[in-house]
């Protein structure tokens, strides 16, 4: 059985696995809603308007741009249905993790909650470092902490920098030696 809604000659295929098909259909429907100019692509403006934190604030520009860059196969600054489907799955996984560690259901991750989440992900970071991340990326207000958009940004940047570190730490001793310019080049390549 094949469902054939078209988006720039892309076909949404029904596989017979009802959970997979439901996820694909949801991603397709959301893509259609987010693609406000009906171009068959999602740009930064459209993505930012579609993504909200628990307090109904839109995701920040940096996180949206980072996600566009992660899933933009053509390096055009926008994502097609396939990239969007991968982004949809990415967002669902991060949202579930965020909700798991937002134990007080404040819509923000505190320094303690962030430390627990990062430890669960395998990062051996100090509570002070996690508090510094919250101070740097947190939203001030009644529930001070990191909202979903910044949580995704922080975790993705940590993954990227950890991967860079592992690539350079060939002896796996926990130390690397970098020149200042090599460090800057690596950071710019990974984070911007």
TrEMBL record:
Its main location: membrane. It holds the Pfam family EF-hand_6. It comes from the Eukaryota. This is Peflin. The keyword Repeat applies. GO terms for cellular component: endoplasmic reticulum; ER to Golgi transport vesicle membrane. It is a peripheral membrane protein. InterPro entries: EF-hand-dom_pair (IPR011992), EF_Hand_1_Ca_BS (IPR018247), EF_hand_dom (IPR002048), Peflin/Sorcin_CaBP (IPR051426). GO terms for molecular function: calcium ion binding; calcium-dependent protein binding. Keywords: Calcium, Cytoplasm, Cytoplasmic vesicle, Endoplasmic reticulum, Membrane, Metal-binding, Repeat. PROSITE patterns: EF_HAND_1 (PS00018), EF_HAND_2 (PS50222). It is found in: Cytoplasmic vesicle, COPII-coated vesicle membrane; Endoplasmic reticulum. Residues 22-57, 89-124 form the EF-hand domain. The gene is PEF1. GO terms for biological process: COPII vesicle coating.
């Amino acid at each position: 059985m094949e469902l054939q809604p078209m988006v720039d000659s892309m076909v949404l295929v029904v596989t017979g696995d009802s959970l997979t098909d439901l996820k694909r259909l949801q991603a397709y429907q959301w893509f259609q809603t987010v693609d406000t100019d009906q171009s068959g692509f999602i740009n930064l403006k459209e993505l930012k308007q579609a993504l909200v934190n628990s307090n109904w604030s839109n995701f920040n520009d940096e996180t949206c741009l980072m996600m566009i860059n992660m899933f933009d196969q053509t390096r055009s600054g926008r994502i097609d249905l396939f990239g969007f489907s991968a982004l949809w799955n990415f967002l669902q996984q991060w949202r579930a993790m965020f909700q798991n560690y937002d134990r007080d259901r404040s819509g923000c991750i505190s320094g303690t909650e962030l430390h627990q989440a990062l430890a669960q992900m395998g990062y051996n970071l100090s509570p002070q470092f996690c508090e510094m991340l919250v101070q740097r990326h947190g939203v001030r207000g009644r529930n001070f902490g990191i909202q979903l958009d910044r949580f995704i940004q922080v975790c993705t940047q940590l993954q990227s920098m950890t991967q860079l570190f592992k690539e350079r730490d060939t002896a796996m001793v926990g130390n690397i030696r970098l020149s200042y310019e090599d460090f800057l080049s690596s950071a710019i390549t990974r984070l911007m």
